[in-house]
Amino acid sequence: MFTLADIFGHISNTIYLVGSVIKGSLALRLSWVLGAVAELVYYVYAAPEPLWTSIAWCGLITGLNLYQIMLILLQRRKSGLSPQEQALYQQLFHAMDWGNFKKMMKTATWEVLSEDRIVIAENERTDYLFLLANGAADVTLSGKPIAQLGSGSFIGEMSLLTGQVPTATVEVERGATLVSWPKAAINKLQQADESLNNELYAVFSRDIIEKIKHQNLQLAG
Predict the structure, then answer these.
(1) pLDDT tens digits, residue range 62-82?
(2) Domain end marker among 29, 49, 77
(3) Which ranges does the record mark as transmembrane (predicted)?
(4) Which of 31, 154, 161, 194 has its CA 20 to 30 A from that of 117?
């Protein structure tokens, strides 16, 4: 039979365990604070006398993480990102640190297409990475349709990752909202910041997996 102190001990360790797999600095620090508070309660009641050394360390951990949370929230408040960019972060880039995402958006260009546009041509090198923020695009190979992309899809990320020329043509439909980055700017950010590079790879991996799932559904249909 668990005592009340045992329950708080298990709760604190469970929170630490969950926090160890959380992505995003804010959520991670919140989990540390909750875990430390639950652990503090455990140390108060687990022994006949409060374990003051452990309690002091838990209080220090809690205070430092609350301070870091405040800094993160202030950074986000002062970030200067538009509502569009904030929505994009929540939709696709939440695996990235907020500051790294802000760095990427400084080099991004937003555009609403007034007509259909081929943004990637088969076997032709491109200097840009594209993101279909809203709308649709058709993918063709040797003039034959092979897939359709929807909102939230990257275009040209494989070319960026491998350095090879695109193997298909992508035509974005009129009215779509397109975000573009110069590849040179992305490469510069990747080389300067390893954490940004790793986070961007995680975002691309998720996008590629979603494309494979969607293509399998199209083939099955």
Answers:
(1) 888 888 888 777 766 656 678
(2) 77
(3) 26-45, 51-74
(4) 161
